[in-house]
Amino acid sequence: MNAYLRAKDRNNRHVAVWLFVVCAFVFAMIVVGGVTRLTESGLSMVHWKPISGIIPPLNEAEWMTEFDAYKRYPEYQTVNHGMSLEEFKNIFFWEYSHRLLGRLIGFAFAIPFFIFLFRKKIKRALKPHLWTMFILGGCQGLLGWWMVKSGLVDRPDVSHYRLTAHLGLAVLIYIYMFWMAMKLVLPRSKKALGRPKKLSRIYVVLLFIQILLGGLVAGLNAGLVSDTWPLMFGQLIPDGLFAGDGGLMNIFNNPLTLHFEHRTFAYIVAIVAIMLWWKLKGDTCETVRMASHIVLMSVLLQMSIGVLTVINMVPITIAAAHQAGAIIALSAGLYLLNRVNR
After folding, report:
1. Domain residue ranges in the chain
2. What is residue 159's predicted lDDT score, i.e. its pLDDT?
């Protein structure tokens, strides 16, 4: 029996390490996707070739073929008309890297998955979850192309709704894998009454909503609306939040409104993080206390990077760090939720 339990624990560790590695790939994918958006590179590849697309242009003739295909679409005709081949190669690099990383994630998940299945290292209760992750990964690729297609029709930009859906599914996949990996290897903490389990769940949900708001902000370039903090245009609540004919849809379509929402929601997230830290800083379990400290530090760091992003007018390096910080803060929130629930 002891040998069986040791083998089971070893298998769980192997599966958890694999899932954490794939999580790292997904984390990189989200950051590279953010840079692709920031550099306006997402529409540089106008075809979706799941198999042959893994090979980039290898000579001048192949590069010209790709460039000529790009010239037939709105982004080149209305935004980048007259760009050089070298400039095209720069934007192509980021979109190609994004798609290549997506394929690598597919391989990094699928190959070990089927090996573990063949060697019977996956416990029965875990198999449906892994199959669900596998299917969601395929859906993410389709959703990415659906997003790109929205910018190849009559406007030289992807739909901010589709971009946010693409980002949201990537984050959901990350949450799913990270959570299941933690459940496999993290020991149960000592029981303690009064832990804020519901508040911890709310915190993770708030972080996810904030990330979605960030996607909408990125999709409409709303980060460029104001370069001052904490006020916008010298006002706590700026004029024009609901200007235009959109009515309630201003919440999702007005760049000024979205910028204000993203800022305001950040304060709500920070307040909840402080509340969690205050409630758990004296917990009897050391890992719970440590998790609360990590949550507070990660969200304060993320807010600081967000402020730097705004006041510097969304430079690529700082904005990419802000996107990475969002996933780090989310990971900290998931870790805390795991600790208070177990």
Report:
1. 1-185, 194-342
2. 93
